[in-house]
Amino acid sequence: MNNETKKLLQSDALLWAHVKEINLRDGIKFSLKGRPYLADLSAMKKRIVNVKKGTQIGATTSMYLEKVHACLYRKFDQNIIYMMPTVKAVEQLAKVAFDPIFEYNLWLKKHVGTNTASQKEINGRSIVFVGAQPQKISGTTKDSTNLRSIACDEVDRDEIDLMDMDMVNMSKQRLNNSRFRRERNFGSPTFPGYGIDQLYEDSDQGKWQIKCESCGKYTCLAESFPDSIILVGGTWIRSCVHCQKEIFVINGHWEPEYPDRREAGLWMSGLISPMADLEEYMHRYHHSEGSRLSEFMRSILGIATTEAENQLSQQDVYDACTHSAMQMYSSVETVMGVDVGKHALHCVTGVKVGRESYEVLNMSRIKDFAELHDLAKKMNTRFMVIDSMPDTHAARSFQKAEPYTVFLCQYVESMAGRPNWDRKTGVIKCNRNEWCDRVHEVFAKKQIRVPRISQEIEEYALEMTKTAKTVIEHPETGIKKPRWIKLSGGEDHYYHSTLYMLLAASRTMAQRLGTDQVKRFTTQKSNFCLK
To answer: Of 178 and 40, which is predicted with more confidence?
Structure first.
């Protein structure tokens, strides 16, 4: 092997693994054959790379090999942090994926020093494995001793959608003393506008564009699916969407949609894999619905999607719209839910009109608690639930000043059953997930009506889509439970103010909306502003 070849293998991790025929496990060697889309993965020049992917494409295996190669040839000065959602997942990864690379490549094993579930030291450089679940400090603050003490040059986040986002942000601090500061985020997407899907959308959006040998035009298989997979003579083939001739993955290249963006992004669908069973994929696509179809879109195509039972759509809100205009005052007594943001208060005012039915009369964004008093006065509010955070002091002062009932809401993840209303402290504690379920339910079951479509209703409808339900696994017990999360790309304040309105309504009797025009106003006492 000449010096030029040696230098090439030292610089290109996947070419090194291919030429060296690295054993991934007993009898299975790494190969780039049929996977030309992997060739550029370890050679990405941009500091941050975001890979949203399907299954069976070899991307994760390539990441493993790149870490081993970086340590072997001392490409970095410090450690590499490899993050997974839980400690349990980290231990399994180290045992199933990394240990066989050392066991079945004895020449490589000679360079291995420390070899534990949490650390692999190779030629004096280490890969440190970290579970991304947080520890609670002082009851509410999230922290992690693993992420607090490790300095590194690169952080790799495997299945970032399943990680605690506070821990993701904390891991960025481990790069502060690095001259490399590389980040690699990858995984199958879950929800639109969340996790790896949002990171990819904000990146240069690289797509594997395949050139047709017949017409010379390009096709991205996943982007054009299902038109890019067609049946010819009883066999499913990859097809040019322009001329319907068969196309071949080997004729593709990575083409960024927005090359000037600072972060790189790659969309690796399972359709480009040599292991793709197109017949099976198309059968699943044509014979699936609901959660099964969503899982196909995520795991095979690498497309984020949400089942109807896990996220409201804007159309769900528009379907609840009546012909009535938004009210600016009310002659009947109302309840109000208020979510406190950094720049505005989001208020939803409504009335309980049946045992399980509600009418929203007004939704408003206002700047401070003085305006909140005025709004409550106009809307004849008699019961209010306010977000206790982030400005607890201002909310508490407002609560004391108003002559009607005001409760401050605190979410308690571990709490089950009915909310706890403490009249002495003026605090209500409730299970966030259960009441997010309730918000979804009243729209899904058409138990709520909102004013006719307007500019504010459009904003309301958009914010109602920014909270979605996923399933998380407890890091120690392995028990899975649902959890509502905030999606990226927008705010969800109106979702929570609607939740607070429903909480307030649960403490009132149903009433009939009439034509009584007598306005009942409160006495102004409050004048507190957001900081």
So the answer is: 178
Q: Considering Cα of 363, then 369, then 373, then 378, what sign does the dihedral take?
A: negative
In degrees, to the nearest 5, what angle opens at C-alpha 350 toward C-alphas 345 and 355? 140
Residue 413: pLDDT over 80? no
Structure token pair of residue 307: 């089942």
Residue 473, pLDDT > 90, answer no
CA distances from 9 to 43, 73, 118, 362, 459 (A): 12, 10, 28, 65, 54
Element (H, E) at 396: helix 392-401
> What residues have CB less than 8 Å from 309, skipping those under 6 apart?
440, 444, 469
pTM flag (> 0.85): no
Mean pLDDT of the chain: 88
Q: Show the CA angle centred on residue 357, arms to residues 353 and 358, nearest 5°.
A: 65
Q: What's the rounded Cα separation, in Å, for the pair 470 and 212?
A: 39
Fold for domain 314-505?
Nucleotidyltransferase; domain 5 (3.30.420)
For residue 43, give both structure tokens: 């050679």
Residue pair 473/482 in contact by the 8 Å Cβ criterion: no
Lookup result for tokens 């502003």: 529
The rounded distance, in Å, linking the Cα atoms of 211 and 229 is: 15
Domain definitions of the chain by residue range: 7-187+263-268, 314-505
Question: Which residues, 6+ apart, have CB-to-CB distance to 171 below 8 Å?
Answer: 81, 83, 130, 132, 147, 155, 157
The token pair at 286 is 């044509």
For 290, left (φ over 0), alpha (ψ -120 to 50), or beta?
A: left
E strand or H helix at 52, and its extent?
strand 48-53
Residue 166, classed as helix, strand or coil, is helix
pLDDT digit string (tens) for 159-194?
Answer: 998 887 788 888 999 999 999 999 999 999 988 888
Cβ-Cβ contacts under 8 Å for 85 (sequence gap 6 or more): 131, 132, 133, 159, 162, 163, 473, 475
Find the mean pLDDT for residues 27-42: 89
Q: What was the pLDDT predicted at 511?
A: 78
Q: Please give the sequence-ordered ranges of beta strands (E in DSSP) within 478-526, or none if there are none.
A: 480-486
DSSP H or E run through 100:
helix 99-103
- Contact indicator for 194, 183 with CB cutoff of 8 Å: no
How far, in Å, CA of 323 to CA of 358, rounded? 16
Across residues 146-155, what is the average pLDDT? 82
Looking at the domain that runs over 7-187+263-268, which CATH code has it been given?
3.40.50.300
Give the residue carrying structure tokens 């790896």: 196
* Residue matched to tokens 């490790």: 150
Q: How many other CB atoms are there within 10 angstroms of residue 210's CB atom? A: 23
